[in-house]
Design goal:
Low-confidence stretches: 1-7, 368-373, 378-388
Structural class: mainly alpha
Number of helices: 18
Number of domains: 1
Radius of gyration: 20 Å
Mean pLDDT: 88
Distance between the termini: 22 Å
Length: 388
């Protein structure tokens, strides 16, 4: 008994208990790891090809879908940190909302610092931060209401988005800066649907086999419906700019068929990851789970390393094709996976996740009754993960 106690109280033992304890939804970690590495692949690999049955084009799958998966998992996270399948009561929502808003503010600052590096990617964190704030009115809502609201927004907002995209503000003197500040390449007007769908997922009992299977089934059906409809309507919208902007499944278009198809892809991926982690494959997936256990750290680190390498090799952080030709993807991915794995298994929580949580506790205080999961990266039974 003394020996077992010593293991669990040692730093490595505590790190392992946090990483793979019974209260953690490790399948959510796996999904987040795939989302983070998928976004890295979308940036650094040649994904500017049309997806076909040729395996050489399959890397194109990461385009758009990785970031939509990331946003959907943000919703899962928020739901888990605010009670999981039993939303927190009205008396606790003000503090939970304050904690969430402060996290969003810090993510926005980090996002703008990443934009300032000049790395030629659309940084998702400013949009992510705004979505955190937009989630506040929905914290007390249960799964059914969240799914219905997400569905309505998913069906309606793509029809409005082309009008918003054509607003004069984006072509004005500070248009590019405003777009970066609000993450308009991931427009919150549409992407709130992904966040709310993710919150709906987080309000389910994600440990149940039937729930996990239902996510795969429902997500697969939406995927087929969205991309099937895109193929069916393509001839009809040709030459009609407005309809072509709405009835499309093009990556990062915020079109109706992309929202349905890629949203379904995100739900199915989460379900598959939860199912995989019911099997011994959960051990094979430890490195990916480690990345997913600290997604904010992993996301920020990849862009900072990219900027430093590009500056050293090319003298220009904005040279996308130059950095792709330099072959940064493989060494950066391997280094990121190895570093996250070592950190997670020895030190525990990611450094940026730890820092943000510390600031939130100092400013807002600790909610002793709340489940200790954090929407910027921690994961457990109720949140991006659950109790640790």
């Amino acid at each position: 008994m003394a020996s077992a106690s010593a293991v669990t109280t040692s730093p490595v033992g505590r790190a392992w208990a946090r990483f793979d304890g019974p209260g953690r939804l490790v399948g959510v970690d796996l999904a987040r790891g795939l989302a983070v590495l998928g976004m890295l692949a979308a940036h650094l690999l040649d994904t500017e090809r049309r997806l076909t049955l040729d395996p050489d084009t399959w890397v194109t799958l990461v385009n758009g879908r990785s970031s939509i998966l990331f946003a959907t998992l943000a919703g899962v996270s928020i739901a888990l940190v605010t009670g999981g399948s039993r939303p927190i009561g009205p008396e606790r929502r003000p503090r939970a909302g304050a904690r969430l808003a402060l996290r969003g503010a810090m993510l926005w600052v980090i996002g703008m610092l990443l934009v300032a590096t000049g790395v030629p990617v659309y940084v998702i964190l400013p949009a992510y931060a705004l979505l955190f704030v937009l989630a506040l009115p929905f914290l007390g809502m249960r799964a059914r209401g969240l799914f219905v609201t997400a569905g309505v927004l998913a069906l309606v907002m793509p029809w409005i988005q082309p009008v918003l995209d054509a607003a004069p503000i984006w072509a004005g003197r500070a248009g590019a800066e405003i777009a970066a500040a609000v993450g308009w390449n991931y427009p919150f007007t549409v992407w709130i649907a992904f966040l709310l769908a993710g919150m709906g997922v987080g309000r389910l009992d994600l440990r149940r086999l039937d729930v996990q299977a239902a996510l795969v089934t429902a997500g697969g059906a939406l995927l087929l419906a969205g991309y099937g409809a895109a193929l069916a309507t393509a001839p009809a919208v040709a030459g009609r700019p407005y309809l072509a902007a709405v009835l499309t499944a093009e990556d990062h278009s915020s079109g109706l068929w992309e929202v349905i198809g890629s949203g379904g892809f995100a739900l199915a991926t989460i379900g598959v990851c939860l199912l995989v982690c019911r099997t011994p494959l959960r051990w094979v997936a430890v490195p990916l789970r480690a990345v997913g256990s600290m997604p904010l750290t992993a996301y920020v680190l990849q862009l900072v390393v990219w900027a430093l390498v590009a500056l050293a090799l090319l003298g220009d952080t904005g040279d996308l094709y130059g950095i792709r030709e330099a072959g940064l993807f493989l060494p950066l991915t391997l280094g990121l996976v190895a570093g996250c794995t070592i950190w997670a298994l020895t030190l525990g929580r990611g450094p940026l996740e730890w820092l943000i949580d510390l600031v939130v506790k100092l400013v807002v205080g600790r909610d002793a009754a709340a489940r200790p999961a954090s929407p910027d990266g921690a994961s457990g039974s109720g949140g991006v993960g659950g109790p640790r």
